[in-house]
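In response to reviewer comment 3 from the previous cycle, which asked for concrete evidence that the modeling workflow produces usable outputs, we include below a single protein chain processed end to end. The sequence was submitted unchanged, and the resulting structure tokens are shown without manual editing.
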Amino acid sequence: MVTIMRILLGILFVAHGISKFQMGLGNAAGWFGSIGLPEFAAYVVAYLELIGGIALIIGFATRYFAIGFMVMLVGAIVTVKLPVGLLGNAQMAGYELDLALLVMAGYFAIADERGMGLDRLLFKTKTQ
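The workflow returned the following structure tokens.
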């Protein structure tokens, strides 16, 4: 079950990363700037979502990418989503999805068991 959860989390982040690339990173950067965030953050977020999502899917550096996602999600909640509330409003979604993804990423940041993936194959411990 943990492997399915990790792969699903990765797929969701890859989808969000791809959407930023499809809209154009310049457009995503412009949107970040329009809400008062540094425009370069859009590039960081897009690449983190895409590369980190792929890493989660294959189970590589799971803990480190999960920590990166946690930082990104807390930033998104605090800077963008918190003012519109848990469920959002007519203009923007709330932070319910971000909160669920944050909890999932938190699990992978602290869990010793990350399921089947490259982490397990490359970094076997004597207890496994």
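The chain has a mean pLDDT of 92. We consider this sufficient to address the reviewer's concern, and the full set will be provided in the supplementary archive.
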